[in-house]
Design goal:
Elements (H helix, E strand, L loop, with lengths): L1 H27 L5 H11 L1 H20 L7 H26 L6 E3 L10 H9 L31 H8 L6 E3 L3 H14 L3 E6 L4 E7 L6 E10 L5 E9 L8 H19 L1
Antiparallel strand pairs: 1-6, 2-6, 3-4, 4-5, 5-6
Length: 269
C-alpha cells in the first residue's frame, strides 16, 4: 500500500509540469484560446491538481516514515518536492503582483504618448484585444479598469498610475540625431526579439510586437523618436498588452530593457 501511494504521488507530481507546459504551449500554438489555457486549465484546474499532489505526497511521505522498511520513501519525497516548488512559485508571483497596479498599458510620456498605427489597431481589433485607453483619462472612467482592485486609484489617470509604479519608465534623451536614433531603435527592437511591424524613419516611428515564450501572448510596442533642441533626440515608447487585465509588470520591464539597450546602441553609433 505504501509503495502504491509513493508511486501515485510521484506520477502525479511528474505529470504536473507536463500539464502546465501543455496548457501554456497549447495557447501559443493555437490549440485552444488563452481563456482555456490560462483561466481554466491552469487557474481553475491546475491549482487543485497542485493541492492534490501536495496532499498525496504528504500522505505517502508519512506512510513511508511510520515504520520500517522505508518503502517508497524516495519516491514520496520526489512526489512532495514538485508541488512544494510549484506552490512556492505561485506564492512569489502573487506577492509580486500584489505590489503592482493591475494595468496592462505603460508609456514613457503620459501627456503625449506615442500612437499606434491603423495597421496595429486593426490587428488588435481582429483578436478582440484590450482597448488602447487615453493615458490622461481617470481610471474610474475606463471600462477595462473597473472593480474593487481600483478603488484606491480610480481618481488617478492611467498614466499617473503607471509612472508612480515604474519611475524608470521615462523619455530617453540621446545625443544621437533623430535619424540615427530611429535606426538604432529598429535594430534594438529586433535584438530584443520583437517582430518589427513597421519602421518609418521620416516620421520617427518604429512599431513592433513582442511575444511571450510560454503562452505566446502578444504585446504591441510603438517607439517614437523626435529631434531635441540640443540637436540630439528624445525617445518615447508605449507597450500595451493585447489580453489580460494585469501584465504583472511585463510592459514596464520591456520598456526599461529596450531603453537601456538603445542607449548603448545609439552611443556606439
Amino acid at each position: 500500500m505504501r509503495l502504491m501511494l509513493a508511486r501515485a504521488s510521484m506520477a502525479l507530481s511528474l505529470f504536473l509540469p507536463v500539464y502546465f507546459m501543455a496548457a501554456a504551449l497549447g495557447v501559443k500554438f493555437g490549440l485552444w484560446p488563452w481563456q482555456v489555457g490560462l483561466l481554466k486549465m491552469i487557474i481553475q484546474l491546475g491549482l487543485p491538481l497542485i493541492g492534490l499532489a501536495l496532499v498525496l505526497g504528504l500522505v505517502a511521505l508519512v506512510a513511508g516514515l511510520v515504520r520500517k522498511p522505508r518503502t517508497g520513501l524516495r519516491m514520496a519525497l520526489v512526489g512532495l518536492l514538485v508541488p512544494v516548488l510549484a506552490l512556492g512559485f505561485l506564492v512569489s508571483v502573487q506577492r509580486k503582483s500584489a505590489g503592482i497596479p493591475p494595468i496592462h498599458d505603460v508609456a514613457t510620456n503620459i501627456v503625449d504618448p506615442p500612437v499606434f498605427s491603423a495597421q496595429v489597431m486593426a490587428a488588435r481589433t481582429a483578436v478582440g484585444a484590450n482597448p488602447v485607453e487615453a493615458m490622461t483619462a481617470p481610471m474610474g472612467s475606463l471600462k477595462a479598469y473597473q472593480g474593487p482592485a481600483f478603488a484606491g486609484i480610480a481618481g488617478k489617470t492611467l498614466g499617473e498610475v503607471g509612472h508612480a509604479a515604474y519611475p524608470a519608465v521615462r523619455p530617453l534623451e540621446l545625443t544621437a540625431p533623430a535619424a540615427r536614433a530611429v535606426a538604432a531603435a529598429e535594430a534594438e527592437a529586433k535584438a530584443q526579439g520583437w517582430k518589427v511591424v513597421s519602421a518609418d524613419p521620416a516620421a520617427g516611428i518604429v512599431e513592433a510586437t513582442a511575444e511571450t515564450f510560454w503562452f505566446g501572448f502578444k504585446d504591441d510596442v510603438v517607439v517614437r523618436v523626435r529631434p531635441s533642441a540640443s540637436g540630439g533626440s528624445v525617445v518615447d515608447i508605449r507597450s500595451t498588452s493585447r489580453v489580460g487585465l494585469s501584465d504583472i509588470g511585463a510592459n514596464a520591464k520591456r520598456i526599461e530593457a529596450f531603453l537601456a539597450g538603445l542607449k548603448v546602441r545609439a552611443a556606439a553609433g
